[in-house]
Amino acid sequence: MRRLCLILACIAVVLGLGTTLPAFAQSPFSPQSPEAAEEPAGEAPARLPADSVRVLVDTIEDPDSRAALLELLRQVAAGTEETDAAAAASSVEVEEPTQATRVADGLSDYAQAIAETATDLTQRALSSFRGLTGVATGRIAVDWERFGDAALRLAIVAGVTFAAYYLVRLFARRLFDAVARAAGGRTFVGTLVGLVVLAVVDEAAVLFAWAAGYVFALTTGEAGGININQSLFLNAFLVVETIKVVLRMILSPTRGELRIIGMSDKAAGYWYFWTSRLVGLIGYGFLLFVPIVNINVSFFAGRGLRMLIALLATGMAIFVILHSRREVAGAIQRFGHRMGSFGRSAAAVLARLWHAAAILYVLVFFVIWLSRPGEALSYMISATLQSFAAIVLAAIVMALISRMITGGISLPEDVKARLPLLESRLNRLVPTILKVVRFVLLALVVLAILHAWRVIDVLAWADDEAGAAFLGGLTSAAIVALVATAIWLAMSSWIDYRLNPSFGKVPTARERTLLSLFKNAFTIAVILFGSMIALSEIGVDIGPLLAGAGVLGLAIGFGAQKLVQDIITGIFIQFENAMNEGDVVAVGGISGVVEKLTVRSVSLRDIDGIYHLIPFSSVDSVSNFMRGFGYHKAEIGVAYRENIADVKAHMHIAFDRLMETEHGPKILEPLDMHGVTEFADSAVMVRARIKTRPGDQWAVGRAYNEILKEVFDEASIEIPFPHMTLWWGEDKKGDAPPLRVRRARDTEAAALPAEPTEPEGEARQSTPDVGTEHSADVTGREG
């Protein structure tokens, strides 16, 4: 019994059933033969197959294989000893490792397992070709006569089967054409029905040819039986040609009117040509030629042939991917243009990277097949379908969410009337919500793909204490973020409602200012506290952050004295209610309307529309023109000859007319007459004052000036303009001294150039005689 177990262990090692690292045992890349996958664990074999004995004999006869077998046995023995030592050492109490140590150890074990697996796979690939080289060099004996007889019988059955298949398809061509004409160019359902009918007829031809080959093999075989080689061919023919039927149904390479996918005839023919060749190579290679070589030549030769076919199929797939890279990228981009912005972005990324992903997929398939031939196909199909389902489900969820909020969020009219800014505020949050949802879906898709390909066991990690804590922290942080956003929206909406003059009490300028400042401070507080709580929920120690913030604030306090001065001055200005939003003030030598107030600065808009931002550190005083009431100071200049009492009376007349206009309700008191205030160079200044509501003094003053000009014009009261009077004085009798004007002598006039001749018809100006005296009052006006 011990000898039997030793023989079975040797066979298991040769066929790749040796154990690997426990941490990597469940990985799809860990080496395992199909026989080990199919044999139930814990069952002892009842008998030893003859094929296994032949394999063991071939292994022992081959020097290289015998040396490799001995080396593997030594490794297994060493691994057993190491396992026992590790079990003994585990009984000793050790200090529990930290999280960083566990992560480092896990990464180290994983890297070591990958390196050992890569080495083992390389050895397997090299040893697979030794069988072919053994047959070529004659080290492995082959019964070529028996092999030739089996190949001849197989060729006859294959010829009969293919001949029957092509004859049936030739006779069914008219039926194919009729169905294509009836269903082509119709509705989608009609085209689909036509494709199903053609596929059924095509599959019937495959079944008929398979049955014909089977009947021929039975009737020509010995004792009415069928040869194993012929049975392998017929099974391979049925599988391969059925897959080709499905490919013809999808691509329709010769019947473009029945093609349901957007593809040209050239592209459809190209893809069918290469995919059918690839299916034929893999199907007939693995299902026919490899088993025949295993039975009639050698197991090692069959394994080498299997490796050669896999390499050829991998190279052919990579060639097709690279050759059609641009065409497929263009098709992906055209498909993405019909989708939204997210679809276009995803299509652009996929168009650039699809060939790399496809090549990686082919290489992964090859490596998994090399390590576990029996499980490779089922594993790849399962992982691919799960990955595809995760991607499609995420795309559907994202499309539904995008469609639900496309065009923004619309609120009822009564809500918009009470909270006019809530809808726009919610719509500003929509892009952020979409980004968060896309990130979460992307993370879930990545985790689902990693779980499907058995890179990470997400479910086991989620059940683990560390994984559960991490997921719980993320969920708590997300809830904190949602609650903080809801609190901010509620507070901002309440402030908007309080500032809405259409509902409730009309807010004063002071209330508007304080509520705006409170809104800014509350937003900063919500962001800070929400961020701190969210970080603490995901496991971040916020104690050092708070300490660092205190140190940073102290450093800023010492280094940014102007900023501190701005804030302190701004706090006192707000505390003393020096100005509010909407007030007209003079600050820092600039006058304008207060548009915005913060703790650090004030923003003014002057009469020219210029926007001024003034920090409070540069403010020495604040002049507010809108506190309580306002005055228009009417200081009017009249000529010296006018009667002052008459001027005052007409100023009252102008004020009475002003009271009858739309500006009357703005005036709080009767005209306050001050009288003569100054004797100016050209006018006597008479001043009056009008008391108005705050902010109305400028409009009232402009209207009063217009009316006063009309009243003065009606009364012929002169409003002087700048002029100059030249006066030579007078004596007590009232006589003015003479104004003497002299004319140059004739001799002096003769020395001067002759005057030009005056045109005929013009009068010559007369000149007084020399010595004549004149007395005149010369007055000149300027302007």
UniProtKB/TrEMBL annotation:
Q: Which GO terms describe its molecular function?
A: mechanosensitive monoatomic ion channel activity
Range of residues in the leader sequence: 1-25
Q: Which residues form the Mechanosensitive ion channel MscS domain?
A: 563-625
Cite the Gene3D superfamilies for this sequence.
1.10.287.1260, 2.30.30.60, 3.30.70.100
Gene Ontology CC terms:
plasma membrane
The record's subcellular location field reads: Cell membrane
Provide the primary localization.
membrane
Record Pfam families = MS_channel_1st (PF21088), MS_channel_2nd (PF00924), MS_channel_3rd (PF21082), MS_channel_TM1 (PF25392)
Q: Give the record's keywords alphabetically.
A: Cell membrane, Membrane, Signal, Transmembrane, Transmembrane helix
| InterPro entries referenced in this protein's UniProt entry, alphabetically | LSM_dom_sf, MS_channel_1st, MS_channel_C, MscS_beta-dom_sf, MscS_channel_2nd, MscS_channel_C_sf, MscS_channel_TM-2, YbiO-like_TM1
Record's keyword annotation contains Transmembrane: yes
Domain Mechanosensitive ion channel transmembrane helices 2/3 intervals: 521-561
Region feature (Disordered): 28-47, 737-783
Q: Does the keyword Membrane apply?
A: yes
Record field: transmembrane: 150-168, 188-212, 232-251, 271-293, 305-324, 345-370, 376-401, 436-456, 468-495, 516-536, 542-560
Q: Which domain of life is it from?
A: Bacteria
Q: Output compositional bias ranges, type Basic and acidic residues.
A: 771-783
Q: Where is the Moderate conductance mechanosensitive channel YbiO-like transmembrane helix domain?
A: 383-461
Q: Please list the residue ranges annotated as the Mechanosensitive ion channel MscS C-terminal domain.
A: 633-719
Q: Which family does it belong to?
A: Belongs to the MscS (TC 1.A.23) family.
Q: What is this protein called?
A: Potassium efflux system KefA protein
